[in-house]
Amino acid sequence: MKLPLSTLEVFNAIASKKSLRGAAQELEVKPSTVSHQLKKLEEQLGTTLFIRTTRSINLTEAGRALARSTGPAFEQLAEGLYSARTAGHAERGSLKLAIPEFAYFLLVKDKLATFQKKYPEIEIELSMTDALSDILSDGFHAGFRLGGLIAEDMVAIRLSEPLKTAVVASPEYLEKNGKPRTPKDLLNHNCLRYRYQSSGQFAPWIFSGSESTYPVEVRGNMIANSSPATIDLSLQGVGLTYTFRDYCTNALESGELVEVLTEYQVTLPSMNIYFPKEYRSMMPLRLFIEHLNNEAD
Length: 297
Fold this sequence. Notes:
Layout: H1 5-17, H2 20-27, H3 31-45, E1 50-52, E2 57-59, H4 61-86, E3 93-99, H5 101-108, H6 112-118, E4 122-128, E5 142-146, E6 154-158, E7 163-169, H7 171-177, E8 191-194, E9 205-208, E10 213-216, E11 223-224, H8 227-235, E12 240-244, H9 249-254, E13 258-260, E14 267-268, E15 271-276, H10 283-296
Parallel strand pairs: 3-4, 3-5, 8-11, 8-12
Antiparallel strand pairs: 1-2, 5-15, 6-15, 7-12, 7-13, 7-14, 9-10
């Protein structure tokens, strides 16, 4: 039997208000409509649901049984409608983000604690991934990518300036093995390579030439799928690594790492947070983006 939802809504309104007129006011319809819908439901069920007198209206046994069963369901429906209407429009709720590890360390790591302190009712879930995933099908609200890799149907907001790359090593490694003078000299060095978690491919080491950019297929005895790990290995004197310069600014300033091949460095597009246009007004996402940009100022 097809569920008579419209007539059940009328029934529950009458049961709640104990009045046909009160039910009509709540539903914003005419009393005659309420009376007609009740009669229709009673005929469909083959039983009387209310005992009506000149002074009152009371549930029959069948009416009480129906109210016990359907009342909570309609309360849940009302709560569901309210949740749908208010979701994303308050300083609370969940925010699921797909973010590469390097973007976390460059842009997010030092700003999460202050954001959570300011908005304690917003739950953030971070999924560290270097995959060019479909954020919608994977259940995320937003993702982080370099500018040139974002689909045209997404909204993108820049979070950084264009990102400079760098080849770095410890002073001890360079003293022992010498400094590479050109990118091709890297073929004679131990290069710490990053392997993408998603594709299994090596991240390319790209350099700027007189006419265009070009990759160098470096070699080495250490591979990791974590950029912080390759930098840490460089700090220990194991070899050279190719990374974002902002990733190791402190180590460069302190002299723990030394930058080489600076005249060959390339600049990559800025880092962006991107999301479907339908999430423009999603409050947790908007507050998070504002916080990242304000904290960067």
